[in-house]
Specification:
- The relative contact order is 0.15.
- By secondary structure, the protein is mostly helical.
- It is found in: Cell membrane.
């Protein structure tokens, strides 16, 4: 029984390894510059987040304090970006969080992350396509939706998962974007760059034009009822807004999927990551400020905030330019999402964990064309018939799961032994317990790496126990107080145990500073956000993972390239041993 469990554990938690410089080898073409990769991230963050999300958060959650919401959420995104930058420099592969989890945690965890990422991109792309369609429809006075309802009819009453009517415009739009992406990485990067430049020009115009109407009395003082004009929903509103605004930053993950096509990934990925986050953070803050200084927060249209604000001021030209920018921004968002989606699928297929047909690279375009075609069809159907509002939280949980796993992997890999430079057999003391750690003898009974994994697992458990009372508001309840105490004790004990491990002497191009403090803080924020998502989101995640695990058990375990590699090594060792025995006899 113990032997069987040990074998199963070895299968589920086997890690991806790269021999020599094989982590740089790729069937894809390394042709993307720092600017190309940076603009992929900017393009993925600049769309619906800035044109749709801003008005909703101002009106319903934060008011003018949205600028603080963007600063808070930008800081939270930065904590995850540190970890992505290190992994992107060390392992520049197309799989992003999936590949990083494979290297750091093992195959089953990599599959869990990898299985959620394509769905996250599909839901995000479908949501943006429907937003683009809806925005365009409003500009032509509902002509598109009225024609569809008249000639095609209703799909549903709009209250469930299905949309009120089939969105053919979103359907076609996703195919057109996929064609551009399928023509090659450099071509799609150039298309994306053109859109980004256009968007940045429009945003600069909107910010400058908006500030010409600035009325600072909208920020200062109180309303007659005593409510602060800057904090109409209180500090809690700014924090709640930060939780929503965080998802306007998730696009920076898209640049990690371009690691396999970057010319110099060790330098490109870290620089592109931090540059894109800095630019987007400044833009978000300035856009939020210009909007709330133009119009009182309670008069802002949550669906078309900037266009409506300019219309109220009589700035018709600015409204038209803003509308063009919104359409271009969301189209930009689609290009980067369509770029990242097939690469996330390709990475799993290339490792043998899902059907190998998806891992085929087209000889002419040097892109995963099969994955692009198949998942564009699925994506277009999703946009055609489903109402995406109920699934947006599902996209969020997939993103947070990926971010959390990357933070965990940084902590684990930083506390594992590494080969000393110039040596093929001698390792440093990474992962060893320091002399002051109690029960050192107990941990030495287990295999290498168990202590740091137990510490990280206990830390996550502690974070969850801390988050639940905040989510449910049961501080006055004895159960809530007990959970807080358990969470505090577990988190503190686990963090001290992590500090009790020696870090390795890895000399990668870029390393996360202040480990384990920064990744553990980022993990704390991600866990809290995940706990705040509703129960149905967790149920949908569970159902989706069950489907994925069935595919993994029936196909992935047997076709895993890492398993085949390990079998070849084992066979080689057996052959050497047999030859040695025969020589002795």
């Amino acid at each position: 029984m113990i032997s069987s469990l040990s074998k199963l554990s070895n299968v589920l938690f086997r890690k991806k390894t790269f021999e020599g410089g094989s982590h740089l080898n790729s069937q894809m073409k390394r042709c993307l510059t720092i600017l190309d990769v940076m603009f992929i991230a900017i393009g993925h963050m600049i769309g619906a987040g800035i044109y749709v999300l801003t008005g909703s958060v101002v009106r319903n959650q934060a008011g003018p304090a949205i600028i603080l919401s963007f600063i808070f959420s930008g800081f939270a995104a930065l904590l995850s970006a540190f970890s992505y930058a290190e992994f992107g420099a060390r392992f520049p592969r197309a799989g992003s969080a999936y590949t990083y989890s494979y290297v750091g945690m093992g195959e089953i965890w990599a599959f869990v992350v990898g299985w959620t990422v394509p769905l996250e991109y599909m839901i995000g792309n479908a949501a943006v396509a429907r937003s683009w369609s809806g925005y365009f429809d409003s500009l032509v006075y509902k002509s598109v939706s009225n024609w569809t309802l008249e000639h095609v009819g209703h799909l549903s009453d709009g209250e469930g998962f299905f949309a009120k009517y089939p969105d053919f415009l979103a359907f076609v739009l996703l195919f057109l974007v996929a064609v551009a992406v399928a023509m090659g990485s450099k071509f799609s990067a150039n298309v994306n760059t053109s859109f980004v430049v256009l968007n940045l020009a429009v945003l600069a115009f909107v910010i400058v034009c908006g500030f010409t109407y600035a009325d600072f009395s909208l920020w200062s003082g109180n309303y007659p009822d005593g409510t602060s004009k800057f904090f109409p929903y209180g500090i809690q509103g700014a924090v709640s807004g930060a939780s929503t605004c965080f998802f306007a930053y998730i696009g920076f993950e898209a640049l990690a999927t371009a690691g396999e096509e970057a010319k110099n990934p060790h330098r490109t990925i870290p620089l592109a990551t931090f540059s894109s986050l800095a630019i987007i953070s400044v833009l978000y803050v300035l856009m939020g400020a210009s909007l709330t200084l133009m119009v009182p927060y309670d008069q802002i249209d949550p669906d078309a905030a900037f266009a409506a604000a300019f219309e109220m001021k009589g700035a018709t030209v600015a409204k038209v330019i803003m509308s063009v920018g919104a359409l271009a921004g969301m189209l930009n968002n689609l290009v980067t999402g369509a770029f990242a989606l097939p690469r996330a699928v390709y990475a799993m297929a290339d490792d043998g964990l899902i059907f190998g047909w998806f891992g085929v690279i087209n000889s002419r375009t040097k892109t995963p064309l099969n994955a692009t075609i198949a998942f564009t069809i699925l994506n277009a159907i999703l946009a055609l018939v489903f109402d995406l509002e109920a699934l947006v939280d599902f996209m969020s949980i997939g993103t947070l799961l990926a971010y959390s796993m990357v933070s965990v992997c940084v902590v684990i890999l930083r506390h594992e032994p590494q080969l000393i430079d110039g040596s093929e057999t001698e390792y440093d003391d990474g992962g060893n317990l320091k002399s002051w750690v109690p029960f050192r003898g107990f941990w030495r009974k287990f295999s290498e790496g168990i202590s740091i994994r137990c510490a990280v697992g206990t830390l996550i458990f502690g974070y969850v126990c801390l988050a639940i009372p905040f989510k449910t508001g049961i501080f006055s309840n004895p159960g809530g107080i007990i959970l807080l105490i358990i969470g505090a004790v577990c988190s503190l004990t686990a963090f001290i145990l992590i500090l009790g491990h020696e870090q390795n002497k890895s000399t990668t191009t870029y390393k996360v500073p202040f480990v384990p403090f920064l990744p553990c803080l980022g993990l704390l924020i991600n866990v809290f956000m995940m706990v705040y998502l509703n129960l149905m989101t967790w149920i949908r995640l569970f159902v989706w993972l069950v489907i994925g695990i069935v595919i993994y058990v029936c196909y992935g375990i047997r076709h895993s390239k890492e398993a085949k590699k390990l079998n070849r090594v084992a066979s080689s060792h057996m052959s050497v041993l047999k030859n040695g025995d025969s020589k002795v006899h």
